[in-house]
């Protein structure tokens, strides 16, 4: 009787074993959803980020933000963007071919972008909240960590050239406002009036930001929103190409990175800031270690995106530190900064990062980024649509 009364235990034990065997299988997602999620999120965990290209000697960017869409971009606008990036690469290529160094190459490339009203730097700079223009730029030399920058300049045609002069002709790193404007003029750079920077599309962008502000959004927030969506003041042949034509595409901060025959690295960044920003606001572009960084043996990097977050995250210097102290390669370091560290701080944007061996990474957490590169063989490549990027989202 005692044995028979305990026989009920056997089927219970059998059922428990069956449940224990089934649970691990039930806890695993099916293969199809897992694959779809991985495709949406980018490289699978454990997969090393891929470099954008190898054998690169010069790269430029024209800003990160809301992506240009093929279906919404006409042939004329596409050509204007590609020509703008390609012209900058040709300017830098000429310097390198003539035996010039990486600093001169990035300056030449950025000057070309500053002279193009398509981009938010120099001629195409956005408006501040008081309808003025305040421009920032920086340059860094990787061989000795020398750097120069200007911030809040109002009358310098090419802020990147003023930044280089600060690096080469002063004991300082950063000059601001009237002092920087005066220094540039005394050292032979052409001065311009505020009218030089004016474009219709930039003005329209300011008016939109003001309208949003009157609707209850703070000026800073509306300015940031306008910069994220970027009515960039683009013009082609005198015709405005701004928000209406290109679907409010990308932030237009510009930058360049280069490596020369001596394997010396250099980086430069230039911007007009964000639409409707407070007068006196300075972002990451003129700050060494945030918007610009170069160190021989690790990386030359130029950033574009939410300036305040890139400052807090020390974006470009962190890329270098991850390579030097963390054992990362260029692609892995840039990817970690852009997709992990900065996003945790609430910011999006992108970086172009070039190693001394010519490996280029161009990750961006924003929908799109305008960029291009020049190879040692002389090939020029421009990328303006999301499906052209290898190391983007």
UniProtKB/TrEMBL annotation:
Family matches, as SUPFAM superfamilies: N-terminal nucleophile aminohydrolases (Ntn hydrolases) (SSF56235)
Stretches the record annotates as Disordered: 209-243
Name the record gives this protein: Isoaspartyl peptidase/L-asparaginase family protein
């Amino acid at each position: 009787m005692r044995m028979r009364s305990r026989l009920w235990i056997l089927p219970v034990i059998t059922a428990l074993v069956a449940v224990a065997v089934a649970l691990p299988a039930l806890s695993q997602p099916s293969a199809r959803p897992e694959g779809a999620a991985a495709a949406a999120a980018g490289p699978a965990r454990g997969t090393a980020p891929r470099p954008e290209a190898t054998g690169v000697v010069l790269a430029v960017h024209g800003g990160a933000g809301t992506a240009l869409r093929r279906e919404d971009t006409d042939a004329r606008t596409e050509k204007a963007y590609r020509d703008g990036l390609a012209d900058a690469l040709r300017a830098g290529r000429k310097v390198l071919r003539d035996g010039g160094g990486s600093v001169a190459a990035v300056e030449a490339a950025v000057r070309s972008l500053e002279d193009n009203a398509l981009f938010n730097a120099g001629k195409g700079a956005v408006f501040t909240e008081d309808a003025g223009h305040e421009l920032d730029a920086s340059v860094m030399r990787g061989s000795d960590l020398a750097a120069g920058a200007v911030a809040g300049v109002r009358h310098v045609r090419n802020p990147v050239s003023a930044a280089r002069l600060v690096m080469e002709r002063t004991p300082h790193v950063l000059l601001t406002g009237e002092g920087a404007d005066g220094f540039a003029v005394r050292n032979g750079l052409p001065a311009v009036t505020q009218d030089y920077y004016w474009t219709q599309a930039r003005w329209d962008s300011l008016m939109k930001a003001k309208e949003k502000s009157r609707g209850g959004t703070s000026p800073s927030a509306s300015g940031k929103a306008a910069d994220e969506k970027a009515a960039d003041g683009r013009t082609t042949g005198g015709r405005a190409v701004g928000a209406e034509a290109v679907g409010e595409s990308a932030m237009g901060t510009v930058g360049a990175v280069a490596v020369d025959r001596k394997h010396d690295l250099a980086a430069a960044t230039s911007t007009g800031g964000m639409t409707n920003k407070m007068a006196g606001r300075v972002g990451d572009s003129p700050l060494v270690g945030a918007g610009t960084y170069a160190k021989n043996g690790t990386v030359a990097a130029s950033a574009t995106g939410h300036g305040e977050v890139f400052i807090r995250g020390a974006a470009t210097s962190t890329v270098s530190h991850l390579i030097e102290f963390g054992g990362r390669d260029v692609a892995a370091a840039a990817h970690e900064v852009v997709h992990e560290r900065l996003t945790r701080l609430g910011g999006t944007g992108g970086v172009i990062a070039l190693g001394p061996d010519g490996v280029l990474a161009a990750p961006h957490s924003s929908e799109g980024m305008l960029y291009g590169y020049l190879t040692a063989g002389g090939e020029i490549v421009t990328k303006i649509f999301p499906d052209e990027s290898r190391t983007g989202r």
